[in-house]
Design brief:
By secondary structure, this protein is an alpha+beta fold. The protein folds into 2 domains: 87 residues; 191 residues, BirA Bifunctional Protein, domain 2. Helices cover 40% and strands 19% of the residues. The chain has 12 helices and 10 strands. The strands form 2 sheets. The chain has a 7-stranded mixed sheet with strand order 1-5-6-10-9-8-7, with helices on both faces. The model has no long low-confidence stretch (mean pLDDT 90). The chain binds phenylalanine.
């Protein structure tokens, strides 16, 4: 048979092959010891010498081609049967394998919730570094050199720099200016934002803060705060009350009452500590609120003129309020969590509840 006719025959015949048994028969027919190709190869020695290598090459090419066709068919056939296998062995009524989805940490969730409340009132979200200058954390906020919060027992210093002139002036070897520390509150971002932007300003700043406190059910060396502040030409204390009351009602519920108690912060004047009516006993007095009926949730006040001066704002032209709250405390009150350490022990039994 002519080799080209044989090639055409092979190519059309393989398309008829529909099972592994048929494929085996096909292979034997063409590639077997008595197959068509063997037959052709056997004819070579009988040819005149000059034609032998030509036919030899053609037979080899056909053989390679044929092998490729067989492999291809085989893949196709086993593909079909694998698919059939899946269908036969598949119980479509069986429950699927549930993907274990991750979730946001409860602190991240509450930050996002509080952010949303303030963003709806026109605030923008900003952040600042956790390694802060001593100036922004203290001096720029009108916190004097001898304030107890600047003591090394109350702040993690990274690079305390002491200037000779300051040692002479104060007789005090405690860290003064030029130093670096882990910020002990989010208030330094007030200084940063006021320096880099112009009023009107309405900013909130969620973030981590650090204090060298002994760890117990209500203290950690690291926790989260949200700072908020507003600066414009006519910002009032009643505006502060309105904003904070809206916040408390959104987060804790409409029935919440709020009260301001006079307090002192160096960077606000007047200053207040802000309480909400106890969410457990609704103000009657219980163990959570220490029988007082009130829960302290944040510190606040009108931004001190000295802070405005430090950032180059005219305190006669501008007024502003600021507030700061501990996020873990808000989350603990909202969800009735009695130990702050639970947030950071990475126990999935706890975390999965949120
Ligand atoms: N920075 C204060 C603190 O950490 C909270 C605060 C912020 C108070 C802004 C008043 C105004 O305790």
């Amino acid at each position: 048979m002519d080799i080209n006719t044989l090639k055409t025959q092979i190519e059309s015949e393989i398309l008829q092959v529909n099972s592994t048994e048929e494929l085996e028969a096909f292979r034997a027919k063409y590639l077997g010891r008595k197959g068509a190709l063997a037959e052709l190869t056997g004819m070579i020695p009988q040819l005149p010498v000059e034609q032998r290598s030509g036919l030899g090459q053609q037979v080899n090419a056909l053989k390679n081609n044929l092998q490729a066709l067989i492999t291809e068919r085989q893949n196709k056939l086993s593909g079909v049967s694998a698919q059939q296998n899946v269908l036969v062995n598949c119980d479509i009524g069986m429950p699927g394998i549930a993907q274990d989805l991750g979730r946001l940490h409860p602190i991240t969730q509450i930050i996002e919730e509080i952010n949303a409340v303030f963003v709806n009132m026109g605030f923008v979200v900003a952040d600042g570094p956790e390694v802060e200058t001593e100036f922004n954390n203290f001096t720029g906020l009108n916190i004097p050199l001898d304030h107890p919060s600047r003591d090394a027992f109350d702040t993690f210093y990274i690079k305390p720099l002491v200037r000779n002139s300051e040692i002479q002036a104060t007789g005090d070897r405690r860290p003064a200016t030029g130093g670096l520390l882990l910020r002990s509150h989010t208030s330094p971002v007030q200084v940063r934002a006021m320096k880099s932007r112009k009023p009107p300003l309405a900013v909130i700043v969620p973030g981590r803060v650090y204090r060298p406190d002994a760890v117990d059910a209500s203290h950690l060396f690291m926790f989260h705060q949200i700072e908020g502040f507003m600066v414009d030409t006519n910002v009032t204390f009643s505006g502060l009350k309105g904003i904070l009351e809206t916040f408390a009602k959104e987060v804790f519920g409409e029935e919440i009452k709020m009260r301001f108690r006079p307090h002192f912060f160096p960077f606000t004047e007047p200053s207040a500590e802000v309480d909400i009516s106890c969410i457990i006993c609704k103000g009657k007095g219980c163990s959570v609120c220490g029988r007082k009926g009130w829960l302290e949730i944040l510190g606040a006040g009108m931004i001190h003129p000295n802070v405005f001066k430090q950032v180059g704002y005219d305190p006669k032209k501008y007024s502003g309020f600021a507030f700061g709250m501990g996020i873990e405390r808000i989350a603990m009150l909202k969800y009735g969590i009695n130990d702050i350490r639970l947030f950071f022990e990475n126990d999935l039994r706890f975390l999965k509840q949120f």
